[in-house]
Amino acid sequence: MHDDRTFELRIDSDPAHLAAVRKAVESFAVACGMSERAANDLGLCLNETLANVMRHAYGGRTDRPIEISAACDANEITVRVRDWGDGVDPSTIPHESYNPLTPGGVGLICLSQLLDRMVYTPQPDGMLATLVKRK
Hints:
Layout: E1 6-12, H1 18-31, H2 36-57, E2 65-72, E3 76-83, H3 107-114, E4 117-123, E5 126-134
Antiparallel strand pairs: 1-2, 2-3, 3-5, 4-5
């Protein structure tokens, strides 16, 4: 379902879907009036969120459902990522200090700096991550 104000997509937790989902949400954001640079930042954060769901909530399984929805209004774009994984809030996990020589570990740092809001809402059977970026 796709119009100029809302966007919904359901994928399996296979990393092969990451590029297409990112491109679709970035295109949606630009169509909603977001600059290309801001849309790319949003896409990067979405990509990182989805990769974390696949890696951590689903432990690398490639057959689990993920729902992505986006909505825009005059001021901002909100993207929601719903999973049915382990329900752990990533922001509560103590993380090691960032080492540029070690891959990974920049996801939550990236998310907090590129988004206006990032909220994790535990669900009875998983997690809902909400990413908000102003236009």
